[in-house]
Every structure is written in C-alpha cells, then in structure tokens.
Amino acid sequence: MAVYLNNKFIEDDQAFLHVSDLSIQRGYGIFDFLRTMDGAPLFMDDHLDRFYASADALHLPVKKSREELSPIIHELIKRSSLSEAGIRITLTGGYSTDSYQIAEPNLVITCNPVKISTQNDFEKGVSIITHEYQRELPHVKSINYLMAVWLQPLLKDKQADDLLYHRNNIITEFPRSNVFIVTAGNKLVTPARNVLKGITRKNILSLAKEIAQVEERDIIVEELSDAPEVFLTATTKKIMPVIRINNKMVGNGKPGPVTTKLYKKFLELERSAHHLVSR
Amino acid sequence: MAVYLNNKFIEDDQAFLHVSDLSIQRGYGIFDFLRTMDGAPLFMDDHLDRFYASADALHLPVKKSREELSPIIHELIKRSSLSEAGIRITLTGGYSTDSYQIAEPNLVITCNPVKISTQNDFEKGVSIITHEYQRELPHVKSINYLMAVWLQPLLKDKQADDLLYHRNNIITEFPRSNVFIVTAGNKLVTPARNVLKGITRKNILSLAKEIAQVEERDIIVEELSDAPEVFLTATTKKIMPVIRINNKMVGNGKPGPVTTKLYKKFLELERSAHHLVSR
After folding, report:
1. Does the predicted TM-score (pTM) go above 0.90?
2. Interchain pair A108, B136: CB under 8 A
3. Which of the ends of chain A has fewer CB neighbours closer than 10 A, N or C?
C-alpha cells in the first residue's frame, strides 16, 4: 500500500518516523480521517477544512496547501486500487531536538482498507456505556486517545461496543463519534460544546431540518436515558442506532423512525456526494 | 549516539518506528527518564519501578525484565561516552493493525546529552504561572503532553519558565516537575493526589524529615500564593526555587532557607548515590 510522507510517495513498509518525533515523545499531533466510496473521496473539503483548523489550533504549520493535498490524496487512492478506503492525514510535532518544542511537522497520509458499517450493522445497532471524562482541547482532532485506548478492557468487560463521555452530568461525545438523541417531542438534539464537530454530524444536522426540529445544546445524562431514540454518527459508521445504554434498552431496542429516516437520507447524500466527485 | 530498539543496539539515525505505531496514531505509550552523573545512572531502581508500574497501568506488557534492562542501560551509557546523559526508556502501544487496539509494544531506550541545573540556576530560580488543568491518569508517566506542549506559546508570552496545574482550586504539579511549599509555620507540604510521584520528590520527602515537619496533602491556590518558600523538583532540575508566581514575588525573591538546606542535602544524596553505583 502506498503512503505519502512529507514530500513523496513511498511503500507502506518504508513509512517510518524517527523516534525523536513529538508524537512518539509527547503524543503531540493532529489528524483527520475520510473515506472513499467506489474509489472517490467523500466530503473531502470538509475534512481538509478541519485538518487545517486542527493544525492551526496546535500551532503546527502545514507546508502543503489544500490545492496540493487534494491531488496527492487522489493519487494515493489510485495507487491503492481500493474502492472502499480510509484515508488518514496525520501531522505530527516533528523531530524535536529537546523532545518538547515543536519542530517542522511530519506529514503522513495513508490509504488503507476500512470497514464501513452496513445496513445489517445499522439494524443491529450498538450497545454503549457512559464514562466520566472530557477530552482535552475537544475542538481539535488531536492524536490524544489515551483514555479511549486505556478503557478498551472496560468496554470488553461490560460487553459494550462504545463509550459515551460525560462531565458534570452533561454528555459530550464518543471517542470517535458524535451523539444525537431524539426527544419524546420528536426534536433532534446534539451537544453543542466540548465536542469535536464531526463531518457526519454536520451533514445530519443539515439533512434533519426537513424531518425534525433541531437543537444544538447541552444534554444531561437523565435526558439521554429517557430518550426514545439515540444514535451516533461517524465517518465509517455513518449513523448507528444506540440500542442499549449501561445495559438499559433504548426505546424498543430497534432503530427508531427518526433515526431510520435520517439514515436513508444520509445514504442518498453519500450517493449524490459521490456522484459529484466521481463525475 | 546509540539507541536500543526492542532487541538491539542501533545508531540514532536508524531509530525509527513505523507510522502504524500507537504512539503516532493515538498518542499511546509510557516512558521514564533518568540521568547519569559522571557516567553512572542515578536512582535507576526507582525509575525502573515506575517504568514497570506505568507500563502495567496502561496494559502494556514489557518483554524485558529489570535484570535485562539494567545492563542494557549501562551499555548504552558506555557507548554514549557521555558523563552527563539523559536516559529515556519509552514503551509505545506497538504496531496496531486497526490503529486503535494495543499491539506488541515497541521499546526504545535513548541516551542523549542533557542540561542539568547548576548552582547558578538554583540561585536564579524560576518564574511560573498557574493554569487550570488536570493531567489524565496522573499516576502514570504517559507520553501525553498535549496540554504542556500546546501551552508553550502562553509561557513565552507571559515570560515565565514553567506552569503549575491546578483544578478545583487545588494545585497539583508542573508538566514535568513536582511542587513543594514551605508554610509560615515551617512545614514542608506537597500535593498527595492527582500527581505523578517523582523520584526527586520521593528523595526530598525522605531528606526533609530531618529538617522540617512534612505533610502530603491538598494545597489550595491561596496557600501557594502566601507561602514564604516554593520550589519544584525534577530529575534534571533537582530542586529549583520558584521566585515568582503569576508575576508576584515569592518571599524576598531569593531561594529560602529551607529550600537551600534541602538543596544541599540533595546534592549530598546524589553524590552518595553516585558513589554507590559507580564503585
């Protein structure tokens, strides 16, 4: 598989960073992640917007403009020969001489096979637990997943698929997904602050306007527990119904009507987005 | 400079990790850091204790026993020909196939020149600012320094040398150092919880018993501001008087009597520890 490292295309088995890199020394870096559909990148402009915003927030200069990055990503997809791929654009703190100060960032772009959620996955939904935690610098897609990786054994132990963070009784996000609830009054609500604003989240908010009243605001844990529908959104998971929270069933344990409507609309959006880029 | 990577000694310019390593992908890993004095490692047993404890806490198996690590470290020091070196033992989450699950950890041991604080540095002391933040999994020496690195421009802007974290009005630690205060009643106090327990901190607590009453307990921000003496402890900084906090002078702006006494005692301890290992 091809990788793009700083200035050139190399093979995956050549894609190494020196141990002085600030990602290895201090866990310092940012990334973004998009996927392809039938060989075409989806919502790439949004992902590049967020990539540059994250880099800027962490004081990491990006040498490549988006006019330069875009053809590199297309070329990587071509070289991968994958129709469904995950593209990860990583920017690290660089080779620091004192293992603390930011140096010239290293840019790594990979294109790998990726598991995309299917209709069948949607029907099954996911079981989640809640966990008290607030991501550091939540508006930035940093590489810091210390807590998420550390909690994997807990997830296994609880036989859950994912964990939803909350702090001060307010829910925020999953490690890699956003959360939405549908209220008894049929309003679609998602947390407004202390979250990473997902690209799928953005698309859902836009699509939902035709279906339900939409609110971006704080959601307390009790409101989550009482919600007739809960779902998560993410690039590879699209929309995934949450059917169990801390072992208590959500609604009747099946994907709810609003969630299902949104899912169909999102699949349509994907197809038209794909049609646009692959023309 | 020599580096030890997993199973062998290599040259620094060969010391690379594949981009799939969980440190690069998710900022996941731990480390410890010790120094040498005239070519002999100082307090290595304590640092190795903490290294294994951190690895265990983050579910990272260490293939090498301490009986194996110790001669490797001695050999690295020998190969470096440095009399004053910093030894960093890093253990990462390994080459993860899904960039999320822990794989077989990569072990990287480096031995590099290091700046050790001098008597002159001690006389000058440091100027600090306080910042609201709590390190994640504070008892673990993880590689997560997202906040510390991110705040470097703020430090520069405030013309300060370091920043002291606090949360809920209780002070905890610096990014890489512990904090102590001397109260008006001549008690030596250091935070008891939500901190990484430093090796120098441990040594100071032990030495201080002969000089002052010692307490490990919460310290509120106001008690810090009113303290006649404040200092920090760290492997390369030994004891460093804090002479300014948020631009307000501590005491008369000179190293205080308890701090100075402890500093002298610590230098003696270093010499005898060095004598023990270099015999």
Report:
1. yes
2. no
3. C
